[in-house]
Design goal:
With about 280 residues, chain A is mainly alpha-helical. Chain A has 12 helices and no strands. With about 160 residues, chain B is α/β, with parallel strands linked by helices. Chain B has one domain: Rossmann fold. Chain B has a 5-stranded parallel β-sheet, with helices on one face. The chains are: A mainly alpha (about 280), B alpha/beta (about 160).
Chain lengths: ~280, ~160
Amino acid sequence: MIGLLMTIFSPIIGGLISGVERVVKARMQSRVGPPILQPFYDFFKLMDKRPIMIHSFHASMGVMYFISAWFAFAVLMLGNDLLIAVFFHVISILALSMGAFSVRSSYSIIGAMRELIHLASYEPVVILCVVGLYLSTGSFDISVILSSSNAPIFTLPLLFFAFVGAIPMMLHKSPFDVAEAHQEIIGGPDIEYSGPFYEAVYTGRWIENVFVYFLVFLFGGGNFILGAFLVVATFLLVTLIDNSTARLDYQRMLKFAWVILIPMAVFNIFFLALGGN
Amino acid sequence: MSKFRKKSPWILHYNTGGCNGCDIEILAALGPKFDIERFGMLNRGNPKQSDILLVTGPVTLKCRDVLRRLYLEMPEPKVVVAMGACTFGGGVFRDFYHVENGVNNILPVDVWIPGCTPRVEALIDGMIKALDVWEKKSKDKEYLNNHSEELLKEIGAIND
């Protein structure tokens, strides 16, 4: 029941996360910042604009990104396999980059290529994170993970830090935001969307926020207070890193993921598998 | 729904060959002291997602077509704000060989911000005024207006 409610209200939760994030970001830069409901005002304004589309395939891929991101979250929340939910999340990213490849704007095509490089960087870490959760709790099922007595964070500390390192790549935060570099390729894959179609992509990003922070919540296991603490701490850390670092190029992002994050995660999993429980 | 409109204006800023004084004031408005994001304004560099076109500078001949194209790429309803003295008739650049003598010869301007350079307070005041203009615009009427033959000929999008 809670899963169904979370699924239905996930765009609203994601919008609130995005609004709080903008306020926290502004306060970190000693600004006042927008109101917390600002993403919803943007939402209603974009609904009110005149729809312009490049061609129908491009627009439908934007809507497809939103639908499949929501569907991945529904698979995650409605008690299905964790691994399958992660793969549905990949489908949503592929829809976005296929749409971006289908137009002639060079910024859009560069953005789509970089989006795929993002996918190549963070996806192994996410899969290893799912494997680690399986080894720690003995199941891919959300309800089993959320009712396990020992929190997975205590057996998977290195894997957790590797996942926190991958979050800026998943959410396009500052050291690793090459795909939507706002100054060089203005928004990357979503540059050609406008009006209601951009609103679909914008809402898809909110749902991706909820998806990622729910994966962080799973590291708390049956201890929901610990899980909530992990989510808040990760949120503040990611926002702090977002504010205090400059953008790296895609080679360094890929190197960071494959040389530091993946060995860290693999080492933790080896240790867990060799040491038994 | 249109009452939420004035809470999130997204700005497209384009410098048509001015002296950069106005651009520095715009950047100051984004910073901590004036913080234009209080009103939900964001500086998007993308015409397809923007609502307010903020033009600075006298329009040079090279910039003219780009400026027209940016205006036509913005979805309705949209507002044009011209900032600085040289957007109105060219200012100190008036009647130079490479200058189009102001934005008004190219686009229909809704709000002027006077001064050379305008202070940041004047910029914020002009933006708030632009929000009132924007709230009254309707997307369908303006679409017909913008795409009528006479207007397209008048701004030079046809036979240019």
